[in-house]
UniProtKB/TrEMBL annotation:
This is peptidoglycan lytic exotransglycosylase. InterPro entries: 3D_dom, MltA, MltA_B, RlpA-like_sf. It catalyses: Exolytic cleavage of the (1->4)-beta-glycosidic linkage between N-acetylmuramic acid (MurNAc) and N-acetylglucosamine (GlcNAc) residues in peptidoglycan, from either the reducing or the non-reducing ends of the peptidoglycan chains, with concomitant formation of a 1,6-anhydrobond in the MurNAc residue. One of its GO terms (molecular function) is peptidoglycan lytic transglycosylase activity. Pfam families: 3D, MltA. It comes from Maridesulfovibrio hydrothermalis AM13 = DSM 14728.
Length: 426
């Protein structure tokens, strides 16, 4: 009995010692999967306000909204904010996106991201469903939330504006019309689909062969300053304002007003494949103008007042665009005319061409007038060299009356990618 009691004492002492040891053990705190950053802290990640006045950072990604949230968002939509009397007006433009998508394999991926994958067939089905729904949206816009899944771009997107300028031009070199618009040169070559080369990706986009050597195609400096294309019969039109010509390259096209009052359209036809640099960033980087003076009007005024520096500064943008002259309307990347207040230029890797996009922004129609709220449905129908990542370029319209609105649109906006529920069930 004494031996049993002694063994019990040893067991109790051992248990007490083990409990004390565990209580003194260091507790390991595992970090939260969400990175919380202070407001105003520098980070390459996006920042989005959440309940509790905290800011959660993370990569650009899509998140599926609930049906209830989608319907609430859809109720804010207004066709009138996009200068349409009815949502039915979207029908012909939707059909243009469908015609573009039909050129792609139905089962191929239009969007291939970790959090969201969509095929061309699903985008087409979404457009067809939207087209059928249009007659009912005027009275019940919330149907767009009921029949479509809304994927919110968590980072939002920077929205800028663009328009098709009307530029004075001539089809022949005469008087003040002395700055050439070039067509695609015959020596500009492009790699065939699937073709590989032992040189850089840049050269695979456009190159030339000279004395048996493969070289990058001519830069803006070589074309504008060294005149390497002059006298080869490549001129399709002539402008009298060199800065207007530069910005026509940036816009990717323009409407030309001829001396006799007729109009022609300069349509994007090709590029030299070299890197694009914005004129504002060039002038800021070189200390020519401060940030507060980088509006397009002030940039143009400086260049025209300083012709000695004008060509050198513009040549810093190596990219060069070639055009063809037509009688039709300006075309987007889908090969179809754009629609004012509806068409969007996007980065296809994030928002594929043919996508349905909802957004909310404010535009300033004219100087001195108040802003105008747009709760809209847009169609991704264009692209641009400067449009990369979470960025939208909103097409304001054709004509110089849209210049102010386009140049004064630069803001962060909420963005939603809309996919029909029936398309997701396929």
């Amino acid at each position: 009995m004494k031996r049993l009691f002694s063994n019990l004492k040893v067991l109790v002492v051992f248990c007490l010692f083990f409990a004390l040891l565990c209580g003194c053990a260091t507790k390991i705190k595992y970090p939260s999967q969400k990175r919380i950053v202070k407001s105003g802290a520098g980070t390459k990640a996006w920042k989005s306000k959440r309940p509790g006045s905290k800011i959660i950072s993370g990569p650009v990604r899509y998140a599926k909204m609930t049906q209830h949230s989608s319907e609430l968002a859809a109720r804010r939509l207004a066709a009138s904010s996009q200068d349409m009397r009815s949502w039915r007006k979207l029908g012909p433009q939707i059909r243009k996106s469908i015609e573009y998508i039909q050129r792609n394999p139905s089962g191929g991926f239009a969007l291939k991201r970790k959090e969201l994958r969509l095929t061309w067939g699903q985008l087409r089905r979404s457009l067809e469903d939207l087209e059928r729904l249009l007659p009912r949206l005027d009275k019940n816009p919330e149907l767009l939330g009921r029949y479509f899944v809304w994927y919110e771009l968590q980072s939002g997107a920077e929205m800028t504006g663009y328009y098709t300028p009307v530029i004075d031009a001539s089809l022949t070199k005469t008087g003040p019309y002395k700055y050439p618009v070039y067509r695609v040169p015959p020596d500009l070559r492009k790699a065939r689909p699937g073709q590989t080369h032992p040189w850089s990706e840049q050269l695979r986009k456009a190159y030339r062969v000279e004395n048996g050597k493969i070289l990058p195609y001519h830069s803006r400096r070589a074309i504008d300053i060294n005149k390497v294309l002059a006298g080869r019969g490549l001129e399709v039109a002539w402008l009298k304002d060199p800065v207007d010509l530069f910005y026509m390259h940036v816009q990717g096209g323009g409407v030309l007003r001829l001396p006799d009052g007729r109009y022609r359209t300069a349509v994007f036809s090709g590029t030299n494949g070299l890197s694009f640099s914005g004129l504002g960033s060039i002038m800021y980087r070189k200390g020519v103008l401060p940030k507060s003076q980088l509006s397009r009007e002030k940039i143009k005024r400086y260049l025209l007042n300083n012709p000695g520096r004008m060509w050198e500064l513009m040549a810093e943008n190596k990219s060069y665009i070639f055009f063809k002259i037509t009688r039709g309307q300006p075309l987007g990347a889908i090969g179809k005319p754009l629609m004012s207040k509806v068409s969007l230029a996007t980065d296809p890797k994030l928002i594929p061409l043919g996508s349905i996009v909802s957004f909310r922004t404010d535009i300033y129609p004219e100087k001195g007038r108040p802003s105008r709220r747009v709760n809209g449905v847009g169609l991704a129908q264009d692209t641009g060299k400067a449009i990369r990542g979470a960025r939208l370029d909103y097409y304001i319209g054709t004509g110089n009356q849209f210049k102010y609105a386009a140049h004064h649109l630069k803001t962060k906006v909420p963005v939603y990618l809309l996919v029909s529920r029936s398309a997701l069930r396929r």
